[in-house]
């Protein structure tokens, strides 16, 4: 019984996600799970995954958020758009410029936050206004379109199918099978290595159950994508970001420092952690990922426009808290945040398909966010 | 004890003027019995002093009295003004005129004196505060405590000494009949302290009753009519100014007289080597009040394989001294020299301090020692992550787990797994995790700041054993403790600190609690003479 409780506690949000998916599948009479909609879930929410990953690092440092990311997405998009559309500069140059602008913004905000102790809320609120304004100045208040086709290909296209079967993308399916097999093999081998070194491991049966569930999810997912156009390229971008950041947060010393600073800044400082550097890293990294999100956004919209990125910060912050990050810092994982982002995406998509009024959609999203944080705080109180 | 000498009538008279009586108060915290059958009797219109070592239970007793620890969480009864009281919150006791002034001043810096004084006790109607009345009354009470400031002055603009007076004025505004002051002079200088004590004597003439908790025994001799001594959560004795000897020496004897045998594990005979670290002419100033010197020209040394005790009262500057040495983690305008193994070193940040073999186990394990929401293993590895990770900064999570498991076994940390959050452990086990963390940093010199505060006797013994192991391995341990028996039982050599200075160096073999206290008293006297 305790074990069931423990599993339930550990995977609460995953279970909620499954329930929500089932509810919407029923509510939309199955349309929710149409291949095109699964594809849309990725394409529409790619920017959320990227931003939420960055936001997690900020939140880990002590519940600090970055309000400027929506404006930074817009500003970076405006810079890239005007370079590619107006100045007809090469795509690679524009992309490097976008990254550089992102890093510069991050260094600017990170400096004030980390070294001058300006509260992040204030610094990034200022950034929200400044970069939205600058984006409008660059764009002259107009929309720049269309983006060069070769640029769009980098984000909006699909991995080509090498097998040419009518109505089914074999490459995509094969790719999914390979991912499932490789991840399973790595897990099993990792366990064997641990055993050989005499370390404690999870029980074999629980690992098998876990792997089977994960593999089935991967296969079902790629099966749906195969019935549509295959693997969207943007999924690869997102996957790379997620994998890298999951690795950093769970396996590296710099990642560990984020948890330490957020858990107890004074104790971290007295343990030799450079707390200022941690803050600086969090915000420069956030702006870097906002630049990536900016690239994705102008490709998806096929334009750079002055209102792009509006409320993106809220999507990212919401995903983090729904995904189990603590509003006080020090707690949260990349996989958790991704589950949170998917949950938000599913709710959006489901309500869209059902034709729920846009205003009510906001109400629902707001309540979901509040519920998640209430859950976090109440469950912590019970422990104490 | 004195009653038999009095006639029956006289006795009744005395009984009828008892304002407060605490009977058989027992209060337990998880794992610790903080108060054990405490009895206290306070006469109407007297100044009653409560003395005892840190952790003896004085503050807990006052929290019971004022309702901070509500009725039902302790055993025993409170009889105030002839009435049995069941306070469940602080306002209950305040309604009866019992007002407590805490050691940490509870004033809000960016509000005016007047606003602070009537906070929670606002004048006027519930939805319309009468500011004129507020400031008018505030000025009246300020005059009573001898403050000339306007009640509209912001609290941040007055000094600490005056803040203490504002606290007293605030208490007066609540119609205090029994004033409880917890270490009221700990942050005041000599003349400010004297002014405050004189104020108390003046109030006494007007019929106010006060209970004063203080470490400064000369002050207690000066103001108190009766002195109750508490030790280990028990009342030891009550001394009366009129009938008993209340010299400092007499009070000290009551405070410290306890059995020392078998509370400390025997250390295997081992050699005490050369000087490991030497600190010379160390000066540190307060980080906010820049002109205030916190550490005043301190020089000391610690040898290889030695337990060096630093004794002193709370606020003597021991924590500030060690933190300023540990990579300048405290204070400004730090000057002086540190030599480790004969070589002068500059420790500008914590990283450098760790790299030179220093470790500082903080006094406040929850506040700035441990990262409570993180797992045990993450806490243990934090100050030496390099040891469990490769050059690129990738952590070997399995190795980390093994390291933590090793310490769990070695230090007998009671926990199901090392993946558990530190926040869920008991105080003693948290302290062991903190020790493990710094042992893993592989230091040569460990500074342990109050390593046994708030943990039970059994866990204390285990921590003493760990200290012994460390010095037997040839490491140096600097043990900072407010518990004199602990310093005497564990240290090879003892420095006594007071008000930021080292006022005595004693060999542990010949030192006694009295001789340590005498160092402190003597330094106070010297200061007073200047």
Question: Can you put this structure into words, describing what you see?
Answer:
The complex is a heterodimer of chains A (384) and B (530). The model of chain A has no long low-confidence stretch (mean pLDDT 91). Chain A contains 16 helices and no strands. The two termini of chain A are 22 Å apart. Chain A has 384 residues and is mainly alpha-helical. With 530 residues, chain B is of the alpha/beta class. Chain B has three domains: 1-97 and 177-258, Rossmann fold (3-Layer(aba) Sandwich); 101-174, no CATH class; 275-529, Rossmann fold (3-Layer(aba) Sandwich). Helix content of chain B is 34%, strand content 25%. Chain B contains 18 helices and 22 strands. Chain B has helices at residues 8-16, 58-66, 90-95, 113-117, 131-144, 160-173, 190-205, 217-223, 248-256, 318-325, 350-355, 365-369, 376-381, 397-410, 427-440, 457-472, 484-490, 513-529, and strands at 18-29, 32-43, 47-51, 75-80, 83-85, 98-101, 124-125, 128-129, 178-182, 209-213, 226-231, 234-240, 275-285, 293-303, 307-311, 332-340, 343-345, 358-361, 445-449, 476-480, 493-498, 501-507. The longest helix of chain B is centred in the last third of the chain and has 17 residues, at 513-529. The A-B interface holds A 194, 197, 199-200, 250-254, 256, 259-260, 263-264, 266-274, 326, 330-331, 383 and B 326-327, 329, 349-351, 353-354, 360, 362, 367-374, 378, 381-383, 385-386, 389, 392-395, 397-398, 401-402, 424, 437.
What is the strand and helix layout of this fold?
The complex is a heterodimer of chains A (384) and B (530).
Chain A: H1 2-10, H2 12-27, H3 35-60, H4 69-86, H5 91-115, H6 120-139, H7 149-156, H8 170-196, H9 204-227, H10 233-251, H11 253-263, H12 265-270, H13 275-301, H14 312-322, H15 334-354, H16 358-383
Chain B: H1 8-16, E1 18-29, E2 32-43, E3 47-51, H2 58-66, E4 75-80, E5 83-85, H3 90-95, E6 98-101, H4 113-117, E7 124-125, E8 128-129, H5 131-144, H6 160-173, E9 178-182, H7 190-205, E10 209-213, H8 217-223, E11 226-231, E12 234-240, H9 248-256, E13 275-285, E14 293-303, E15 307-311, H10 318-325, E16 332-340, E17 343-345, H11 350-355, E18 358-361, H12 365-369, H13 376-381, H14 397-410, H15 427-440, E19 445-449, H16 457-472, E20 476-480, H17 484-490, E21 493-498, E22 501-507, H18 513-529
Parallel strand pairs in B: 3-10, 3-11, 6-9, 9-10, 15-20, 15-21, 18-19, 19-20
Antiparallel strand pairs in B: 1-2, 1-4, 4-5, 7-8, 11-12, 13-14, 13-16, 16-17, 21-22
Helix pairs in contact in B: 5-6, 9-18
